[in-house]
Amino acid sequence: MKEPQTTKKPFISIIKRYHLVLFIVVVALILSVAILLLYGVVNKASGENVSPEGNVSSNFDQATIDRIKQLKTSDESSDPLDLSRGRINPFIE
């Protein structure tokens, strides 16, 4: 009858001594498996809906071309800024 208890005693002492390390290793393994599974799901889901680069349409309609031509560059200004009013300095008493 003492045979089972003597084999349990070293195992239990190892568990008591390294319980925190064992817990951290088990949690890290579970997290790494979960990340790998999620990575596989994301890759599978994103791979189905991706269109090849050759099918991308680069044609614009005439209305879009006209709107782009109406844009002004940073050098051009349609409305001059009126700086005569100025700002009130909040730090002056």
List the keywords.
mainly alpha; 3 helices
Structure description:
- This protein starts with a helix and ends in a 23-residue tail after the last helix.
- The protein is built from 3 helices and no strands.
- Helices cover 59% and strands 0% of the residues.
- It is elongated and about 95 Å long.
- The mean pLDDT is 80.
- It has a domain at 19-45.
- The protein is mainly alpha-helical and 93 residues long.
Please state roughly what percent of the residues sit in beta strands, choosing from under 5%, 5-15%, 15-25%, 25-35%, 35-45% or over 45%. Answer: under 5%
Flag low-confidence runs: none
Number of helices: 3
Structural class: mainly alpha
